[in-house]
Amino acid sequence: MVNYESVIGLEVHMQINTKSKIFCECSTQFGLEPNSNTCVICTSQPGTIPILNKKAAEAVIKTGLALSFNINKESIFARKQYFYPDSPKNYQITQSDPPLCSKGKLSIVIKGEEKVINITRIHLEEDAGKLVHEIGSRKLDYSLLDLNRAGVGLMELVTEPELNSPEEAFEFLSELKNIVEYLETSECNMEEGKMRCDVNVSIRPVGQKEYGIRVEIKNINSLSGVRDAIAYEIERQKKVLTSGGKLIQETRLWEAEEKMTKSMRSKERALDYRYFPEPDLVPFELTDSFIEGLCKEIPELPRTRKARFIKDYGLTEYTASYLTSTKIVADYYEEALNYLKDKKASSKLLANWISTELNAKFNVSKISISESPVSCQNLAKLVSLILDGTISGKIAKIVFDEMFEKSSDPEKIIKERGLVQISDKLIIVKMCEEAILESTKAVREFKSGKEKAIGAIVGLVMKKSKGQANPQLVNEILMKILKT
Question: How sure is the predictor about 142, in pLDDT bands with cuts at 50, 70 and 90?
Answer without folding.
Answer: confident
